Automatic annotation (TrEMBL):
UniProt keyword Transferase, yes or no: yes
Name of the protein in question: Phosphotransferase
Taxonomic source organism: Verrucosispora sioxanthis
Stretches assigned to the Aminoglycoside phosphotransferase domain: 65-230
InterPro entries: Aminoglycoside_PTrfase, Kinase-like_dom_sf
Keywords, alphabetical: Transferase
SUPFAM superfamilies assigned: Protein kinase-like (PK-like)
Gene Ontology MF terms in the entry: transferase activity
Pfam entry (one): APH
The keyword Magnesium is annotated on this UniProt entry: no
Length: 271
């Protein structure tokens, strides 16, 4: 299929993370550069990416701030986008630059502002997902699991306002080129509450440097983190991080998940 789409393709580099069965290649064809992404048997991210490209990404692609889709096939779990120049922000000298976090806030606001829908069942579904993670193999302490289960089952399940979200909004999915931030990787894109896109940043980058949070909020324009809903999201995000990272063998990310769990529960203990 790729040979039909891009005959004579030459592979220039591989950008796969190596944690899951997803291959990401930088290729050239007829003098143009592309990114090719192929999902494994259990992959659901390619469908999400293609849905995002079809429905939600124009506020970014029209500005050249996200890669434009060239080809895609849901059944083959294969997509091709135009190459977007830039350096990954994660691990670079740009990772602590408030100016980029302000741009990240501005870009996220464009995505979220497209529309909003009300979902009366969102909170219940998310609670069930968190409880399901706790039933799978993980290294969360047994007494912590009991406490998490007790808390989750005590929560109310109010209706939620959902918007298009990226789902993994953090520096590992940002590129910077000549001072301009752009966005990649839409494999977790879905309708969720806006505050869920703050979760990865709050767990790591905002804790590292409050200036980054201030700049991000300045770019975004508001702070959607209503305290009770935000706490529920923090707990669910922490559980998912620790359990998923254990499953794929990412010990550093797993440790972050355990810190997130401890932090969320510590906040409950503060009078």
């Amino acid at each position: 299929m790729l040979a039909r789409w891009l005959p004579g393709t030459s592979v220039e580099a591989e950008h796969s993370w190596g944690l899951v069965a997803t291959t990401v290649l930088e290729v050239t064809c007829a003098g143009a550069r592309f990114i090719v992404k192929a999902g494994g048997d259990d992959d659901h991210g390619i469908r999400r990416e293609l849905d995002a490209h079809a429905n939600w990404l124009r506020p970014w692609t029209d500005r050249g701030r996200a890669p434009a889709l060239v080809h895609g096939d849901v059944d083959a779990k294969l997509l091709v986008t135009r190459y977007l120049p830039g350096q990954l922000v994660l691990g670079s000298e740009h990772a602590d630059d408030p100016r980029l976090y302000r741009q990240a806030g501005e870009l996220l606001a464009l995505l979220h502002a497209q529309f909003v829908v009300t979902d009366d069942d969102h909170e219940r579904r998310e609670n069930e997902k968190a409880l399901a993670w706790l039933r799978r193999p993980h290294r969360i302490a047994a007494h912590t699991v009991r406490r998490l289960r007790a808390e989750i089952t005590s929560w109310p399940t109010p209706s939620a306002s959902l918007v298009p979200t990226h789902g993994d909004w953090q520096p590992r999915n940002w590129l910077v080129h000549e001072g301009v931030l752009s966005v990649i990787d839409f494999g977790r894109a879905a309708l969720r509450p806006a505050y869920t896109d703050f979760g990865r940043l709050a767990a790591r980058d905002f804790r590292r440097d409050p200036r980054l949070e201030a700049a991000f909020l300045d770019g975004y324009g508001t702070d959607p983190r209503e305290p009770d809903a935000w706490h529920r999201n923090r707990v669910r995000e922490a559980i998912g991080t620790a359990a998923w990272a254990y499953r794929v063998g990412d010990e550093a990310f797993e440790a972050q998940g355990h810190r997130m769990i401890a932090g969320a529960l510590r906040d409950v203990d503060v009078p």
